[in-house]
Amino acid sequence: MHQSSTIILGIESSCDDTAAAVISNGKVLANIIANQEIHKKYGGVVPELASRAHQQNIVPVVDAALKKAGITKNDITAVAYTNGPGLLGSLLVGSSFAKTLSIGLNIPAIAVNHMQGHILAHFIQEQNEEKEMPEFPFLCLTVSGGHTQIVRVDGYFKMEVIGETIDDAAGEAFDKIAKMLQLPYPGGPLVDKYAKEGNPDRFSFPHPKVDELSFSFSGLKTSVLYFLQKEIKSNPNFITENIKDICAGVQKTIVDILISKLLKAVEKTNIKQVAIAGGVSANSGLRNALKSLETHEIKVFIPKFEYCTDNAAMIAITGYYHFLENNDFSKNYTPNARLKL
Fold it and tell me: How much is the pTM?
Protein backbone atom coordinates (compact mmCIF):
# COMPACT_ATOMS: atom_id res chain seq x y z
CA MET A 1 0.00 0.00 0.00
CA HIS A 2 1.18 3.53 -0.74
CA GLN A 3 1.95 5.75 2.22
CA SER A 4 -0.38 8.38 0.74
CA SER A 5 -3.44 6.24 1.52
CA THR A 6 -5.38 6.98 4.67
CA ILE A 7 -6.44 3.51 5.78
CA ILE A 8 -9.05 3.22 8.52
CA LEU A 9 -9.97 -0.02 10.26
CA GLY A 10 -13.55 0.25 11.56
CA ILE A 11 -14.92 -1.90 14.37
CA GLU A 12 -18.65 -2.12 15.20
CA SER A 13 -19.94 -4.06 18.23
CA SER A 14 -22.91 -2.05 19.52
CA CYS A 15 -25.45 -4.86 19.61
CA ASP A 16 -25.27 -8.45 18.35
CA ASP A 17 -23.20 -8.15 15.15
CA THR A 18 -19.41 -8.18 15.33
CA ALA A 19 -18.16 -6.27 12.30
CA ALA A 20 -14.86 -5.01 10.91
CA ALA A 21 -14.21 -2.99 7.76
CA VAL A 22 -11.27 -1.41 5.98
CA ILE A 23 -11.63 1.88 4.11
CA SER A 24 -8.84 3.48 2.09
CA ASN A 25 -9.30 7.17 1.20
CA GLY A 26 -13.07 6.78 1.62
CA LYS A 27 -13.39 3.62 -0.49
CA VAL A 28 -14.36 0.25 0.98
CA LEU A 29 -11.77 -2.52 0.67
CA ALA A 30 -13.51 -4.96 3.04
CA ASN A 31 -16.72 -5.09 5.10
CA ILE A 32 -17.11 -8.24 7.21
CA ILE A 33 -19.99 -9.06 9.60
CA ALA A 34 -20.39 -12.02 11.98
CA ASN A 35 -24.01 -12.45 13.06
CA GLN A 36 -24.85 -14.06 16.38
CA GLU A 37 -27.37 -16.86 15.83
CA ILE A 38 -27.66 -17.61 19.55
CA HIS A 39 -30.31 -14.92 20.21
CA LYS A 40 -32.92 -16.51 17.92
CA LYS A 41 -33.96 -19.07 20.52
CA TYR A 42 -34.50 -16.34 23.14
CA GLY A 43 -36.62 -14.16 20.85
CA GLY A 44 -34.40 -11.12 21.38
CA VAL A 45 -30.83 -10.05 22.10
CA VAL A 46 -29.45 -11.27 25.44
CA PRO A 47 -26.78 -8.68 26.40
CA GLU A 48 -24.56 -11.08 28.39
CA LEU A 49 -24.49 -13.63 25.56
CA ALA A 50 -23.89 -10.87 23.01
CA SER A 51 -20.73 -9.60 24.69
CA ARG A 52 -19.38 -13.16 25.05
CA ALA A 53 -19.98 -13.83 21.35
CA HIS A 54 -18.20 -10.56 20.46
CA GLN A 55 -15.16 -11.75 22.41
CA GLN A 56 -15.06 -14.94 20.35
CA ASN A 57 -15.71 -13.18 17.02
CA ILE A 58 -13.64 -10.03 17.13
CA VAL A 59 -10.16 -11.39 16.31
CA PRO A 60 -11.31 -13.64 13.42
CA VAL A 61 -13.50 -10.85 11.99
CA VAL A 62 -10.71 -8.23 12.05
CA ASP A 63 -8.30 -10.79 10.61
CA ALA A 64 -10.76 -11.59 7.77
CA ALA A 65 -11.23 -7.87 7.00
CA LEU A 66 -7.46 -7.22 6.77
CA LYS A 67 -6.97 -10.30 4.55
CA LYS A 68 -9.85 -9.32 2.25
CA ALA A 69 -8.48 -5.77 1.99
CA GLY A 70 -5.06 -7.18 1.13
CA ILE A 71 -3.27 -5.24 3.88
CA THR A 72 -1.44 -6.00 7.12
CA LYS A 73 -2.03 -4.34 10.48
CA ASN A 74 1.02 -2.15 9.88
CA ASP A 75 -0.74 -0.44 6.94
CA ILE A 76 -3.53 0.93 9.17
CA THR A 77 -3.51 4.73 9.69
CA ALA A 78 -6.10 4.74 12.49
CA VAL A 79 -8.68 2.46 14.09
CA ALA A 80 -12.28 3.68 14.53
CA TYR A 81 -14.72 1.97 16.88
CA THR A 82 -18.32 2.38 18.05
CA ASN A 83 -18.39 4.20 21.38
CA GLY A 84 -22.20 4.21 21.75
CA PRO A 85 -25.12 4.09 21.84
CA GLY A 86 -25.58 0.34 22.29
CA LEU A 87 -25.28 -2.48 24.81
CA LEU A 88 -22.55 -1.61 27.28
CA GLY A 89 -20.97 -5.09 27.42
CA SER A 90 -20.89 -5.29 23.63
CA LEU A 91 -19.43 -1.77 23.26
CA LEU A 92 -16.69 -2.60 25.78
CA VAL A 93 -15.44 -5.53 23.68
CA GLY A 94 -15.01 -3.42 20.54
CA SER A 95 -13.59 -0.36 22.28
CA SER A 96 -11.09 -2.36 24.39
CA PHE A 97 -9.89 -4.20 21.29
CA ALA A 98 -9.56 -0.96 19.28
CA LYS A 99 -7.70 0.91 22.04
CA THR A 100 -5.32 -2.00 22.64
CA LEU A 101 -4.61 -2.28 18.91
CA SER A 102 -4.01 1.47 18.66
CA ILE A 103 -1.51 1.38 21.55
CA GLY A 104 0.27 -1.64 20.06
CA LEU A 105 0.55 -0.02 16.61
CA ASN A 106 0.98 3.52 17.94
CA ILE A 107 -1.90 4.88 15.82
CA PRO A 108 -4.97 6.95 16.79
CA ALA A 109 -8.11 5.25 18.14
CA ILE A 110 -11.19 7.20 17.04
CA ALA A 111 -14.43 6.98 19.06
CA VAL A 112 -17.47 7.01 16.76
CA ASN A 113 -21.12 7.73 17.54
CA HIS A 114 -23.11 4.80 16.09
CA MET A 115 -25.97 7.06 14.94
CA GLN A 116 -23.58 9.43 13.14
CA GLY A 117 -22.17 6.31 11.49
CA HIS A 118 -25.59 5.36 10.11
CA ILE A 119 -26.00 8.85 8.61
CA LEU A 120 -22.46 9.05 7.19
CA ALA A 121 -22.92 5.62 5.55
CA HIS A 122 -24.19 7.74 2.64
CA PHE A 123 -20.58 8.83 2.02
CA ILE A 124 -19.14 5.32 1.64
CA GLN A 125 -17.66 4.87 -1.84
CA GLU A 126 -17.20 1.50 -3.57
CA GLN A 127 -13.84 0.83 -5.18
CA ASN A 128 -14.95 0.78 -8.81
CA GLU A 129 -17.96 3.10 -8.90
CA GLU A 130 -18.59 6.75 -8.25
CA LYS A 131 -21.93 7.31 -6.58
CA GLU A 132 -23.74 10.54 -5.94
CA MET A 133 -23.64 11.65 -2.31
CA PRO A 134 -25.98 14.01 -0.48
CA GLU A 135 -24.93 17.65 -0.24
CA PHE A 136 -25.20 19.63 3.00
CA PRO A 137 -27.66 20.48 4.32
CA PHE A 138 -29.82 17.36 4.01
CA LEU A 139 -32.44 15.68 6.17
CA CYS A 140 -31.90 12.13 7.32
CA LEU A 141 -34.62 9.87 8.67
CA THR A 142 -32.78 7.43 10.95
CA VAL A 143 -34.92 4.43 11.76
CA SER A 144 -33.70 1.41 13.71
CA GLY A 145 -34.67 -0.90 16.56
CA GLY A 146 -33.61 1.73 19.08
CA HIS A 147 -34.09 5.05 17.27
CA THR A 148 -36.54 6.97 15.12
CA GLN A 149 -35.29 10.48 14.42
CA ILE A 150 -35.29 13.18 11.77
CA VAL A 151 -31.84 14.72 11.71
CA ARG A 152 -30.83 17.93 10.01
CA VAL A 153 -27.30 17.36 8.69
CA ASP A 154 -25.30 20.55 8.04
CA GLY A 155 -21.84 18.97 8.00
CA TYR A 156 -20.07 15.68 8.69
CA PHE A 157 -20.27 16.37 12.42
CA LYS A 158 -22.85 19.12 12.48
CA MET A 159 -26.12 17.31 13.09
CA GLU A 160 -29.26 18.32 14.91
CA VAL A 161 -32.19 16.08 15.84
CA ILE A 162 -35.31 18.03 14.82
CA GLY A 163 -37.85 15.28 15.49
CA GLU A 164 -37.85 11.98 17.33
CA THR A 165 -40.04 9.33 18.88
CA ILE A 166 -41.57 10.06 22.27
CA ASP A 167 -41.85 6.36 23.10
CA ASP A 168 -40.89 3.33 20.97
CA ALA A 169 -38.75 3.19 17.86
CA ALA A 170 -40.25 2.09 14.53
CA GLY A 171 -37.96 -0.97 14.40
CA GLU A 172 -39.10 -2.01 17.86
CA ALA A 173 -42.74 -1.70 16.75
CA PHE A 174 -42.00 -3.98 13.78
CA ASP A 175 -40.33 -6.57 16.03
CA LYS A 176 -42.97 -6.47 18.81
CA ILE A 177 -45.85 -6.75 16.35
CA ALA A 178 -44.02 -9.62 14.62
CA LYS A 179 -43.88 -11.33 18.01
CA MET A 180 -47.66 -10.92 18.41
CA LEU A 181 -47.98 -12.61 15.00
CA GLN A 182 -45.83 -15.50 16.32
CA LEU A 183 -43.04 -14.78 13.84
CA PRO A 184 -39.50 -15.71 14.93
CA TYR A 185 -36.94 -13.05 15.98
CA PRO A 186 -35.88 -10.78 14.32
CA GLY A 187 -39.41 -10.27 13.03
CA GLY A 188 -39.09 -6.96 11.15
CA PRO A 189 -37.69 -8.48 7.93
CA LEU A 190 -40.41 -11.20 8.00
CA VAL A 191 -43.19 -8.59 8.28
CA ASP A 192 -41.64 -6.96 5.20
CA LYS A 193 -41.54 -10.30 3.36
CA TYR A 194 -45.23 -11.10 4.03
CA ALA A 195 -46.31 -7.50 3.39
CA LYS A 196 -45.04 -7.72 -0.20
CA GLU A 197 -47.71 -10.34 -0.91
CA GLY A 198 -50.53 -8.84 1.14
CA ASN A 199 -53.25 -6.22 0.61
CA PRO A 200 -52.21 -3.10 2.59
CA ASP A 201 -55.72 -1.63 2.55
CA ARG A 202 -57.65 -4.54 4.01
CA PHE A 203 -56.86 -3.80 7.67
CA SER A 204 -56.10 -0.24 8.70
CA PHE A 205 -54.61 0.99 11.96
CA PRO A 206 -54.80 4.47 13.51
CA HIS A 207 -52.08 7.10 13.17
CA PRO A 208 -50.93 8.66 16.46
CA LYS A 209 -51.85 12.27 17.24
CA VAL A 210 -48.49 13.78 18.18
CA ASP A 211 -47.01 17.22 17.69
CA GLU A 212 -45.16 18.48 14.65
CA LEU A 213 -42.12 16.26 14.04
CA SER A 214 -42.52 13.83 16.96
CA PHE A 215 -43.22 10.14 16.41
CA SER A 216 -45.08 7.65 18.58
CA PHE A 217 -45.42 3.91 18.00
CA SER A 218 -46.63 2.51 21.32
CA GLY A 219 -50.29 3.22 20.46
CA LEU A 220 -49.95 1.32 17.20
CA LYS A 221 -48.67 -1.76 19.07
CA THR A 222 -51.64 -1.57 21.45
CA SER A 223 -54.19 -1.18 18.64
CA VAL A 224 -52.70 -4.16 16.75
CA LEU A 225 -52.81 -6.21 19.97
CA TYR A 226 -56.51 -5.42 20.64
CA PHE A 227 -57.37 -5.99 16.99
CA LEU A 228 -55.74 -9.45 17.03
CA GLN A 229 -57.35 -10.42 20.35
CA LYS A 230 -60.79 -9.48 19.03
CA GLU A 231 -60.37 -11.35 15.72
CA ILE A 232 -58.88 -14.48 17.33
CA LYS A 233 -61.94 -14.74 19.62
CA SER A 234 -64.18 -15.36 16.62
CA ASN A 235 -61.56 -17.24 14.55
CA PRO A 236 -58.65 -18.96 16.33
CA ASN A 237 -56.79 -19.31 12.99
CA PHE A 238 -57.16 -15.63 12.14
CA ILE A 239 -53.41 -14.88 12.17
CA THR A 240 -52.31 -17.82 10.02
CA GLU A 241 -55.10 -17.25 7.50
CA ASN A 242 -54.50 -13.49 7.17
CA ILE A 243 -50.80 -13.04 7.95
CA LYS A 244 -49.94 -11.37 4.60
CA ASP A 245 -52.71 -8.77 4.79
CA ILE A 246 -52.03 -8.03 8.50
CA CYS A 247 -48.32 -7.49 7.77
CA ALA A 248 -49.12 -5.32 4.75
CA GLY A 249 -51.49 -3.16 6.84
CA VAL A 250 -48.99 -2.77 9.70
CA GLN A 251 -46.13 -1.96 7.31
CA LYS A 252 -48.21 0.59 5.38
CA THR A 253 -49.18 2.33 8.65
CA ILE A 254 -45.57 2.56 9.94
CA VAL A 255 -44.25 3.72 6.56
CA ASP A 256 -47.04 6.32 6.14
CA ILE A 257 -46.27 7.74 9.60
CA LEU A 258 -42.54 7.99 8.79
CA ILE A 259 -43.01 9.54 5.35
CA SER A 260 -45.66 12.08 6.43
CA LYS A 261 -43.34 13.39 9.18
CA LEU A 262 -40.41 13.52 6.78
CA LEU A 263 -42.48 15.59 4.31
CA LYS A 264 -43.48 17.88 7.18
CA ALA A 265 -39.77 18.36 7.98
CA VAL A 266 -39.03 19.17 4.32
CA GLU A 267 -41.79 21.78 4.42
CA LYS A 268 -40.53 23.31 7.69
CA THR A 269 -36.83 23.45 6.78
CA ASN A 270 -37.19 23.89 3.01
CA ILE A 271 -34.38 21.32 2.63
CA LYS A 272 -35.08 19.29 -0.51
CA GLN A 273 -32.49 16.51 -0.08
CA VAL A 274 -33.58 13.59 2.06
CA ALA A 275 -31.87 10.37 3.08
CA ILE A 276 -32.71 7.33 5.18
CA ALA A 277 -30.40 5.40 7.48
CA GLY A 278 -30.49 2.69 10.13
CA GLY A 279 -31.72 -0.91 10.13
CA VAL A 280 -35.31 -0.17 9.11
CA SER A 281 -34.03 1.62 5.98
CA ALA A 282 -33.61 -1.92 4.58
CA ASN A 283 -37.44 -2.23 4.62
CA SER A 284 -38.75 -2.47 1.05
CA GLY A 285 -41.98 -0.59 1.85
CA LEU A 286 -40.04 2.38 3.23
CA ARG A 287 -37.54 2.34 0.35
CA ASN A 288 -40.32 2.32 -2.25
CA ALA A 289 -42.29 5.07 -0.49
CA LEU A 290 -39.17 7.21 -0.35
CA LYS A 291 -38.36 6.59 -4.03
CA SER A 292 -41.85 7.79 -4.94
CA LEU A 293 -41.10 11.17 -3.29
CA GLU A 294 -38.56 11.93 -6.03
CA THR A 295 -41.39 13.63 -7.97
CA HIS A 296 -41.90 16.41 -5.37
CA GLU A 297 -38.65 18.15 -6.45
CA ILE A 298 -37.12 16.15 -3.62
CA LYS A 299 -33.79 14.39 -4.09
CA VAL A 300 -33.67 11.03 -2.33
CA PHE A 301 -30.69 9.01 -1.06
CA ILE A 302 -31.13 5.37 -0.06
CA PRO A 303 -28.13 3.38 1.19
CA LYS A 304 -27.18 -0.02 -0.22
CA PHE A 305 -28.66 -2.89 1.82
CA GLU A 306 -25.34 -3.82 3.41
CA TYR A 307 -24.95 -0.30 4.82
CA CYS A 308 -28.46 -0.13 6.33
CA THR A 309 -28.09 -2.59 9.19
CA ASP A 310 -25.21 -2.36 11.67
CA ASN A 311 -21.90 -2.61 9.81
CA ALA A 312 -18.31 -1.48 10.30
CA ALA A 313 -17.93 0.37 6.98
CA MET A 314 -20.10 3.18 8.38
CA ILE A 315 -17.88 3.33 11.48
CA ALA A 316 -14.74 3.38 9.31
CA ILE A 317 -16.05 6.18 7.06
CA THR A 318 -17.00 8.26 10.12
CA GLY A 319 -13.51 7.63 11.54
CA TYR A 320 -12.07 8.71 8.19
CA TYR A 321 -13.83 12.09 8.32
CA HIS A 322 -12.86 12.54 11.98
CA PHE A 323 -9.25 11.86 10.92
CA LEU A 324 -9.42 14.37 8.04
CA GLU A 325 -10.87 17.01 10.35
CA ASN A 326 -8.22 16.18 12.94
CA ASN A 327 -10.85 15.74 15.66
CA ASP A 328 -10.01 14.67 19.21
CA PHE A 329 -8.43 11.18 19.32
CA SER A 330 -8.25 10.78 23.07
CA LYS A 331 -7.96 7.25 24.48
CA ASN A 332 -10.00 8.39 27.49
CA TYR A 333 -13.42 7.95 25.91
CA THR A 334 -15.43 5.35 27.79
CA PRO A 335 -18.26 3.57 26.00
CA ASN A 336 -21.62 5.21 26.61
CA ALA A 337 -24.71 3.02 26.15
CA ARG A 338 -26.95 6.11 25.86
CA LEU A 339 -24.72 8.33 23.76
CA LYS A 340 -26.73 11.11 22.09
CA LEU A 341 -26.29 12.42 18.58
Answer: 0.92
